[in-house]
Amino acid sequence: MRREELALLRKRINVAVYIVGVVLLMLTAGFWHFQIAQTVRYTELADKNRLKQVTIIAKRGRILDREGRIVVDNRPSYNIVYVREGARHSLEEIIDMLAPGLSLTPEDIKDRVARSRTEPKYRPIILKEDVDVADIAFVNARKLEFQDEILVEYQPRRRYLEGDLAAHAIGYLGEVTPDELKRSDSKQYKAGDQIGKFGLELRYDAILRGKDGYRRVVVDNRQREIESLGSEEPVPGNDLRTTLDLDLQRAAEKALGDQVGAVVALDPSTGDILVLASKPAFDPNLFAKKITAIAMQELNADPRKPFRNRVIQDRYAPGSVFKIFMAAAGLETETLNPLDHVNCSGEVSFDGGRVVKHCWKAGGHGSVGLYEAIVNSCNVFFYNVGRKLDIDRIADYVGKMGLGRRTGIDLSGEDTGLIPSREWKARAYKTRSKAEQAWYPTETLDVAIGQGAVAVTPLQAAFAMGGLASGGRLIQPHLVDPKFLSENGFMAPKLQFNEYHVSASTVDIVGRGMWGVVNEGGTGTRAAVKGFDVAGKTGTAQVVARKSYGKEEDFEDNAWFVGFAPYRNPEIVVAAFVEHGGHGGTAAAPIAHAIFETYYQKKTGQFGSQANGPIAQVNP
Fold first, then answer.
1. Cα(77)–Cα(84) distance, integer angstroms
2. 189-228: buried (b, 16+ CB within 10 Å) or exposed (e) per residue?
3. What are 66-96's pLDDT values in tens digits?
4. N or C, which terminus of the chain has less Cβ within 10 Å?
5. Predicted pLDDT of residue 615
């Protein structure tokens, strides 16, 4: 072999050696990278293929009344869920297999999966909630076909034992929305969670909801469980004891019946809400699982607005109930002498005879003093009180008494009400002419008898009346006592406590008149309870040709009764309102009577021992 050929051969051998060396080096580097440098990462990936975390859903805390009786509990239920991790079928195949058997639409399944696309794949996606035996049998009969992609999962579900009783106070649950997931701490909620949407379920969601547990298991390549690696038990939510009294609540709602209206009762010495009823109502059990579109549409389309909490969200002219606050303001500012008398002929002229105002009683009441004016609800008497006080002084004093502002109840959506003044009108009518912005004396006269622009919520009426009857002490109303929260280890807000000056003589004079309304032939005799000194005031607020319930008509007046008992040192205040109920003495006073009577029977041990629900121990 010639020298040139030998040199070429050696060169080729060297190149081959170099190539083999580079390949070996690359293989060695790759081995080192994947087997040593990336050990942790690939171990984690391998674990994900063989380890699985199964969620154990925590029970939500119960809601109890003030005596520990269960109002809201939990019941067992089952969901059909879809697990994407290790799935052997495409979503389209899953839809083809599931939709017909579970009566689901393809769009519904796709929507549920899409809402959970950012969730870890091992977390189950709920496809159908609260399924029946037939659905469970359908899935179990196809275990081999579904593998572990489609499972039946246990989930405790809300049970509202009293149906729509106190629905606006209790509230309801709903599935967390994508927007709520974005707004909340990522660890707080996950897709598919049921969270509070309304009422106490919303306000105290953090207390009621528990902490989910989990089981960590080893699965094979077909995602079948072969070994358990331990678990963390779920932590149940805490029970919530409310201030509501089931017996009083039942009495109130039974008396209110099918009428549109609101009832609230509270303890003025503590601020405890004993009754909170708004009609019409809704059944929270409809929301314990995903409410049907038809049912939701019916509720939203109802012209009577069953979702409105009329106790705190709607404002109404208080009618003659407002005369009590006018009387107190007049006495405290010394513009009204308790010995003053006015001749009521059925009408009265003001401003040189240019303004004529009428009393509700044709022919009038004759000569009336303050006591008779309260008992018989004489308009003419209070027109004169309003004229002497003037609107700004009225606004200032009744504002101190708790009207025209939120009470601070632990529910969302509370309205402020409205106590008009010159400044308010100028601000409200700022885009109109100077003449429209001006306040006129006739407007003061309307306000003096609870008409015109003045408007209050039923809760404000009870709150302010309780404060007056208690000598000017206003304690923030609440459905959950902060003391209960602090004793159970939760952050408890400090109750707002306000006082305004009102003399004992004013309280006595006004209270004596209100006692006469109920017990001495006044307009509120149907609220009387034998042996229990009930004091109160009726109200009949005019409603003329306003659009309501979808058509324009003349309506019956709104009916009010606000009162307290006993007459001295009151223990309970009740405000009852019936929309288009007519006269307060015939429509609203009997509702208050039912509450006062039940309260008195319980207080004296006369109340029956009918089934009132089980007594529950509160979770510590």
1. 22
2. bbbbbbbbbbbbbbbbbebbbbeeebbebebeeebeeeee
3. 999 999 999 999 988 888 877 778 888 888 8
4. N
5. 66
Given a contact cutoff of 8 angstroms between Cβ atoms, the answer to whether 120 and 179 are in contact is no
What is the rounded CA–CA span in Å between residue 416 and residue 608?
39
In sequence order, what are the beta bridge partners of 346? none
Quote the crossing angle between the two packed helices 106-115 and 91-102, to the nearest 10°.
Answer: 130
- The alpha carbon dihedral of 495, 498, 503, 506 has a sign of negative
Q: pLDDT per residue over 563-616, tens digit each?
A: 999 999 999 999 999 999 999 999 999 999 999 999 999 999 988 744 456 666
Instruction: Say how far apart CA 304 and CA 46 lie, in whole Å.
Output: 59
**116-149 residues labelled b (16+ CB within 10 A) or e (exposed):** beeeeebbbbbbbbbbeeebeebbeeeeeebbbb
Closest CA to 147 of 88, 65, 189: 88
DSSP 345: S
Pairing of strands 240-241, 225-232: unpaired
Contact 64, 243 (CB under 8 A): no
pTM, two decimals, is 0.85
Please state, in angstroms and rounded to a whole number, the distance separating the CA atoms of residues 388 and 484.
47
- Kindly report the average pLDDT of the chain as a whole number: 87
Residue with tokens 């106790």: 311
- End-to-end CA distance of the chain: give it in Å, rounded: 99
3-state secondary structure of 91: helix
63-64 vs 240-241, strand pairing mode: parallel
Residue 209's region, left for phi above 0, alpha for psi from -120 to 50, else beta, is beta
Residue 319 is classified by DSSP as G
Give the per-residue SS3 of 555-617.
CCCEEEEEEEECCCCCCEEEEEEECCCCCHHHHCHHHHHHHHHHHHHHHCCCCCCCCCCCECC
* CB 216, CB 52: distance < 8 Å: yes
What average pLDDT does range 108-121 have in this prediction? 82
